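dude i think i finally got it to work??
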Amino acid sequence: MEKILTLRGLLFGAIGGFIAWIFMYVMAEPIIGRAIDYEEARSEAMEALEHTHEAGGHSHGGEDELFTRSIQEGLGAGTGMVVLGLALGGITAIIFALWMHYRSGAAAGRYALPVSGLAFAVFYLLPTLKYPANPPAVGNDDTIEARTGLFLLLIVLSAVAVLIGVFVRQKLRARLGAGSMWAAAGVVIVLMIVIYAVMPQLGSLEANAGSGSSFETPGPVVDAEGHIILEGFNADDLYQFRLYSLIAQAIIFTSIAGGLTLAAKKIDALRGIASRERAVVAA
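look at this
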């Protein structure tokens, strides 16, 4: 059973990652291009301000890219999305296999979609509600490690909250029936609200506070007299990038769910054949 689930999870995770890359290439790449252009324009505007305020200031100059933009868009992004799909597919398959060991004898087909949905919630949806994805130019470079650590911590805390919800569901199932699902959902919601309240806002990180900014999203660049030299980052681009990132992850997990559903049906069919063979032998 584990081999069937793992192989299907890896395969359909990779397929989902490839489809998600195509989606992001078509829908999000123009946004990323505009974000990079904005980042360069902002750097030039900030440098111009420094030269205005500090006589004899030096120019930072442009940095040579290790990989061209076309390589990053194509091979780099595509490989990254496929590897991400492989990892998520493998992890979800392992979780599904562990759950089927816990629910020994239960039909595997009925749990493929719920397990995939919970994996999507834990690994992306719940963490991204607090710390959503950002395009280039959004986010202080000095907070990358802190942001990554907070996101990973939130994944762990989300997993704990969901596991507690599953535990509540199992404990109350006999007494409340279908109502136990609502009770479990309520527990998870309350736990996540507490977690979101305790986890810090990105704008409150030390690097942002030290730069005098309380937000990760770049605001307008103004001179000493308050004149706007460069507008803040486009809010529509930020919203659309986050939406497309969410859809891309949903594509990956939908593909994983499809693969695990097919694997589960195969497992149930093999179990049925084995059961009939045992019945024939017993007769």
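The CA atoms of residues 170 and 267 lie 24 Å apart.
im so relieved honestly
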